[in-house]
Amino acid sequence: MMPKSTIYFVSSLNGNDENAGLSESTAFKSLKMINELSLMPGDKVMLAKGSVFENEFLHIKNCGDINGDLIEITSYGDGDLPKINANGNGIWHQDYGTELDFKGHRYKGDVSSAILLYDVENILISDIEITNKEEFTDLENYCAPDKIDRTGVAAVAKNRGTLHSITLKNLFIHDVNGNVYNKHMNNGGIYMTAFKPDNEAKTGVARYDGVAVEDCFVKNVSRWGIAVGYSYRHKDFATKELADETFKKYGNENILIKNNYVKFAGGDAITPMYALNPLVEHNVSDSCATEMNDRYYKYPQKRAGKVAAAIWPWKCKNALLRFNDVVDTKLNQDGMAYDADSGDGTKYEYNYSRLNEGGCMMFCLQEAVHNTFENNLSVDDLSGTMTPASNPDAYVANNTFYVRHGVPFVRKRMHGKMTVKDNKIIKIEK
Fold this sequence. Notes:
The model has no long low-confidence stretch (mean pLDDT about 95). This protein has a domain at about 55-70 and about 90-120 and about 130-335. It has helices at about 30-35, 140, 200-205, 245-250; strands at about 5-10, 45-50, 50-55, 60-65, 70-75, 85, 90-95, 110-120, 125-130, 150-155, 160-175, 190-195, 205-215, 215-220, 225-230, 250-260, 260-265, 270, 275, 280, 285, 320, 325, 340, 345-350, 350-355, 360-365, 370-375, 375-380, 385-390, 395, 400-405, 420, 425-430. Strand 1 (about 5-10), helix 1 and strand 2 (about 45-50) form a beta-alpha-beta unit. The longest helix has 7 residues, at about 245-250. It is mainly beta. The strands form three sheets. It has a 24-stranded parallel sheet that branches. It has four helices and 34 strands.
């Protein structure tokens, strides 16, 4: 028999850590009281609206059961959403346990996270405001390559095998001043990862099955807006064609990223990773890749990491990206609205793009296969509307492109294969 679930209340306004925390009138005052608990299936953590948890963080570890009731962390009462201002606190050590696919990518180090879900499943987090900011005295410090990685919400799979059912809903995440160079640390607004287990033979491969990020507003974050979820098993995805069985054994399944608004991300806006059939729909990316250029970031030795696009999958199979809007992605080595990057069977349909400085769509390199771009609308994207970057078989059909006079339809010096069929290409003046 499952133990009885418990509801915990936390209020910075009228709580007291000497209280039992079991009612509104006996609420805890600080989040540390929750961090010290072992949450059980069905437990709820209720944060009072109007509360501000300054220099605090919420780190939940080793709990949840897909066969039990849902754990919930949400808000109650009237007023503004409860706010967690981590301000560089909530430091934990990240380590993939192996080098990443590109040796220049950092794979271990300290991270500050306002909310951390470490080996947690069957959980819903909703209706909370989150920041993790740093005050800078000058631009040089802001651009420092050794700046600590920071996250609004971080999730880690490691020692519990497959983690099921993690839902993030209606979160306002902003002012997360992470390190824009570290692509695959838990770094940015929302970032989920899988690390090498201590004993993989015993616990199984660390992976995700069932992640939903919905209705979140992510603003002024570095590096990523929303990323789900880079894996220590990246070597298992090194081929062009990718088998379903590979994902079911080593990758992620049932990934949904829907109805989110990402504005002013320092790097990429939204990316599912190592996922089978991920669905990315009805999202907006607005003015992202803001820190991907040498106007601000001055360290040429880190240039290999200074590439970003807006909404795109990495090493996925049959990713479907539809009904998304992307505007004003800033120019860098990429800078496109959309990108089919080293995946198999990526499909873009019914998306909109406008004034993206790197163009509308890229098919990226030789491992981007069986990818299609159909029934989309591009309006005044710059640099070159389409970027077939050494890919073998891109298919582009039934789209409408409004192309500024003087902007090439195919970005210069791109030599991939691209079938272009039944598109409307309409020339416009500036």
